[in-house]
Amino acid sequence: MNACQKYEQNLVLLLYDELEAVAKAELEAHLHACPACREALQTLRELHHDVPRQPLIEPDDASLQVLRNVVSLKVREQTRQKRGWALFSFVQPSPAFQLGFAVLLLAFGFLLGRQVLPEAQPVPQQPGMDLESLLTASQRIQSANSQIDPF
């Protein structure tokens, strides 16, 4: 990137007086030293002066009325299309519908699980395996290859 490219980008901003003070002073110092950039700025000024200003075109009342009618028709068509779907608005996913559907699926899952799974059978008690004997440490405890002697 050559040194002038940095300043050439700011020439239009200088022309419209939109540069900050520091950048403007830096660009003006460069313009005093660089004839190519001075020439580019002069060309921009001539072009800016030669381009005619476009007057604002005010539409007449008849044109405004036609535009308003067209916009009004478009708005009516869009509201009519939306109104046609109003009968089926309950199908559109809304947060309340989604929550209700999730609760329904959860209840269906529980009911299906109760119907499919067999009832739990009570575990038969072995003699001497009541809660009190399990909680007292008066007997030797044996499990697979290990033994625990409470005393």
Q: Spatial order of the strands in the main sheet? A: 1-2
Query: By helix and strand content, what is the structural category?
Result: mainly alpha
Q: Output the helix-strand order.
A: HHHHHHHEE
Main beta-sheet annotation: 2 strands, antiparallel
Number of helices: 7
Principal-axes geometry comes out as elongated
Distance between the termini: 92 Å
Kindly estimate the percentage of residues that lie in beta strands according to DSSP. Answer: under 5%
Q: Low-confidence parts, pLDDT < 50 over ≥5 residues?
A: none
Radius of gyration: 44 Å
Average pLDDT figure: 81
The number of E-state strands comes to: 2
Helix content: 55-70%
Describe this structure as you would to a colleague:
- The model has no long low-confidence stretch (mean pLDDT 81).
- The chain starts with a helix and ends with a strand.
- The chain has a domain at 3-49.
- It has 151 residues and is mainly α.
- The protein contains 7 helices and 2 strands.
- It is elongated.
- The chain has helices at residues 3-8, 11-15, 21-33, 35-50, 61-84, 95-116, 131-135; strands spanning 141-143, 146-148.
- The chain has a two-stranded antiparallel sheet with strand order 1-2.
- The chain is 60% helix and 4% strand.
